[in-house]
Design goal:
The protein is α+β, with helices and mostly antiparallel strands. The protein is built from 5 helices and 13 strands.
């Protein structure tokens, strides 16, 4: 993921607006949690004519506890994405090589992101300015035995109301290599005067295609052997 995505005028304008929104939320009393990656699959990138995934932000005010129930009242189109969360143990500067990026990763864990697709995913600038539809994230416990971004042997299974909806034994197939994603986030943030800092969480993109959810449903994401996380909808 070496392309300088921020040189795309759509990305530059969208990220500038997005990071202004982030600063406004911090100034209003919320706290930064980390970053998100979206539209990383080959099909999504082709549709938007982008070479690399898009970057958004996470705030602590949008974090839900595992097993929480979230109301979908007022949402336009609620969608769940089951992802691997990277927990950063050290700052990572732009231009870091693979070994440096691995040393900066303290743990991996499961995550469910909830987005509200309020408009069709067609306009890159608008998608970024709206923080890639981000609403909530549910984070499971981080597994320090996966420090360095070790994904070998990981299998993801998604249950919807107790029935298996999807599974994969190749969690990087839809997103690209996790280490490349982390380096891309660091490079992109640096281009806009931000830093990928120790303590930040990166949710790295849906490991199976995202899917709509409705009130009354429960989603369980098993990221074996790391852990399980779930969320209900009302």
């Amino acid at each position: 993921m070496s392309a300088k995505s921020w040189e795309d005028p759509r990305v530059h304008a969208g990220m500038t607006a997005q990071l202004r929104l982030r600063r406004e939320r911090i100034d209003a009393g919320d706290a930064a949690l980390g970053w998100k990656v979206g539209f990383g699959s080959p099909a999504a990138r082709e549709k938007l004519s982008i070479d690399t995934p898009l970057i958004g932000f996470l705030m602590r005010g949008g974090r839900l506890a595992p097993g929480a129930t979230v109301s979908l009242a007022g949402w336009t189109k609620a969608i769940a994405e089951c992802e691997i969360a990277v927990h950063m143990g050290a700052d990572l500067a732009a231009g870091a090589d693979e070994a440096t990026a691995r040393r900066a990763i303290a743990a991996l864990g499961p995550a469910i992101e909830l987005i509200d697709r309020v408009r069709p995913p067609e306009d890159v600038e608008a998608i970024l300015a709206g923080n890639i539809y981000q609403r909530h994230v549910v984070l499971g416990a981080p597994d320090a035995s996966r420090a360095g971004g070790l994904v070998e042997g990981i299998r993801g299974t998604i249950l919807r109301n107790g029935a298996e909806r999807a599974s994969t034994s190749d969690p990087q197939a839809a997103t690209g290599e996790l280490i490349g994603i982390v380096r891309h986030v660091a490079d992109t943030l640096a281009a806009f005067g931000e830093t990928l800092s120790a303590g930040a969480v990166i949710i790295t993109g849906a490991i199976v295609p995202p899917f709509p959810v409705e009130p009354g449903e429960e989603i369980v994401f098993q990221l074996e052997p790391i852990g399980t996380v779930s969320v209900r909808f009302a």
